[in-house]
Amino acid sequence: MMGERGFSLIELLVAMAIMLVAMAAVFRLINPASGTFDAELERIEMQQRVRASADAIFNEVLVAGAGAAIPAVAPFRRGERNPDAFGSAYSDRLSVSYVPANAGVEDTATVTFWIRTDPDEGTQLMRYDGRQSDVPLADHLSSLRFDYFGADGEEIDRGRFTDGPWTTGASGQPFDADLQAIRRVRITLRVSPVRVMLRTPLPDHEMAMDVSLRNLDRP
């Protein structure tokens, strides 16, 4: 009987072909949306990463010079392990000195922020505690820069921090006296995307903020 007739092989193949075409069309509609969603997640993550990095540096620069610790900030690494050579000045590192609250003048804290390139982890924002520990704060940091300004608001060229005159702080280590002219630090960070296979490539995300050294004007 005609009602009991099944589908022929050709009919099944045609039906499968139609179904595959329909699925492909649906996939083409969904896939770009998925790529846009991934790109938006990556953009939000980059913004959070650069904000957290900037805040970590900002909070310590804000107390620079507390307790008359000098120099309050310096463009080189200070501490017990691998300090930079005398007379150095770098654009991508910043050391901050201050006396923590409820501590004696002799208990000066000195930390250094710098950028490290690791073959496994990539580029990282690092914090050195002035003693033995270098701790990563953020990954995929593509650049880090510090600029310095005097009381007149004019930028101070880093060359002034390497040519003297020289003086010494409480630690007995000599430093360029021009470091004491710094009244404001500009922090500029740039982070790169973690997901490198995004359908929509994202540019690096950059953020800059200025921090005034308020403790230097206190008695």
Kindly summarize this structure in a few lines.
The chain is α+β, with helices and mostly antiparallel strands.
Structure overview:
The N and C termini lie far apart (107 Å). The protein has one domain (36-217). It has one helix and eleven strands; from the N terminus they run H-E-E-E-E-E-E-E-E-E-E-E. The model has no long low-confidence stretch (mean pLDDT 83). The chain has one helix at 9-61, and strands at residues 73-74, 93-98, 109-118, 122-128, 134-139, 141-149, 155-156, 166-168, 174-176, 184-191, 205-212. It has 219 residues and is an alpha+beta fold. The strands form three sheets. A five-stranded antiparallel beta sheet has the order 1-2-3-4-5, with helices on one face. 24% of the residues lie in helices and 29% in strands.
Individual helix count = 1
Helix-strand makeup class:
alpha+beta
Beta content comes to 25-35%
The counted number of beta strands is 11
Q: Strands across the major sheet, in which order?
A: 1-2-3-4-5
Average pLDDT for all residues: 83
Number of separate domains? 1
Biggest sheet character: 5 strands, antiparallel
The Rg value, from CA coordinates, equals 28 Å
Shape: elongated
The H-and-E topology, N to C, reads as HEEEEEEEEEEE
Low-confidence stretches: none
Q: Termini distance? A: 107 Å
Secondary-structure topology with pairs:
Blueprint (H helix, E strand, L loop, with lengths): L8 H53 L11 E2 L18 E6 L10 E10 L3 E7 L5 E6 L1 E9 L5 E2 L9 E3 L5 E3 L7 E8 L13 E8 L7
Antiparallel strand pairs: 1-2, 2-3, 3-4, 4-5, 6-7, 6-10, 8-9, 10-11
